[in-house]
Amino acid sequence: MPKILWMSPYSLHDISSGASINCKYLLEALAAQGYEVWALSSFIFDMPSGAQLFTQAQDKLALSDKPIFELNDNGIHYIYQRCHSTFEGEQSAAEQEVFFTLLREVLDRFAPDLCMAFGTSMLTMTCFAEAKRRGITTIYPVLNGNHGSFSFPDVDLLLTDSQATADLYFKRDRIRAHPIGAFFVPERFVAKKRHPKYVTMINPSFEKGLSILARLSLACQSRLPDVRFLVVNSRGNFAENVQYLHEKGQRDVHPLSPQDFVNVDMTPATTNMKPIYAATRVLVAPSLWFESWGRVVSEAVYNGIPVLASNSGGLAEAAGGASLNLPVPEHCRNDYLSLPSLEEIEPWVVALERLITEDWSAQVSAAQQRLAAANCLARFNAVVQPYLDERARDHLHFNR
């Protein structure tokens, strides 16, 4: 079977990065299918909290002062470089030199057929250039819409999760990306027993649509008084952030306080989402910025939960047909702190009532089949197979 190497300073164990999580699940699925998978990485995380998998699994770390250590985890052989900071911008030149030297050693030792990484730093680009120089197929998973000014040098194959993101890059940048879906391991987040009670929003940050959720919950106090909301304070804090929201066109008018939300409960961020999904009847994802996918949307669907979401990017694809997707007011999209009016939030109230009162079990079941990891694997294999065939022909030619 083919060999694939992850070669990014970004850690695949970063639980604060949806992109890292998706790539880790993809590589684990490939390992289970028979690929030989190695990962060369360092301790670079989106946020320091992303390193929780390491702090909770010290037995997997080499408990020594050595700057390089190796471990095996879920079918992947990891080679890790320790560094003094978890932020990419704080990597020293010496640490980057060590990483690149290590990459060349791993390429010699492992001899991969495919190399995969993301990141736009000079270190990552140098790694792509070295793999490309050796004739190895290079793959970049682009899982957001933020790389419009980037030309992806020395990258053979651009993968993405949603058709929405593929369309964005093609129409905006004339760059072709292949959508393969997102990868999930349901047993890690699907609750065995459910007691649905809440309309839930995960991560009440401004760009994720806090203004929509705030106005929706307030409207429901009179329209749907029996509905309770749950907010999971991950990167944002609901009680703090609602105080910064302002009326449309009046940036100095901040009408809300935490005491206004008598129908909203809060819970802190957690690495175990099963209890959250067990208590959720509808997931709300009213994102105001471009969402390439939306992992929590798919996780909700896997738990049998329908979704109320904006029509941003790939959120509808992430729900697989088990959602109602609505546009957000343009002023909210242009200013994440701008509150929608009562008239603008009315379609959201009507849609939420539908999701609560109607039977969505058929749509959810069909969506679960569409989101199955086997479908994503089949798409990945179909995309990379021509490159593997070409590499096999090259090996045959040079070994004659």
What can you see in these coordinates?
The structure is a single chain. Helix 3 (about 95-110) packs parallel to helix 4 and helix 6 packs across helix 12. The chain has 14 helices and 14 strands. It is an alpha/beta fold and about 400 residues long. About 40% of the residues lie in helices and about 15% in strands. The longest helix is centred in the last third of the chain and has 26 residues, at about 375-400. About 45% of the residues are buried. The chain has an 8-stranded mixed beta sheet, sandwiched between helices. It is globular and about 70 Å long. The chain has helices at about 20-35, 50-55, 95-110, 120-135, 165-175, 210-225, 240, 275-280, 295-300, 315-320, 330-335, 340-355, 360-370, 375-400; strands at about 5, 35-40, 70-75, 75-80, 115, 135-140, 155-160, 180, 200, 230-235, 265-270, 280-285, 305-310, 325.
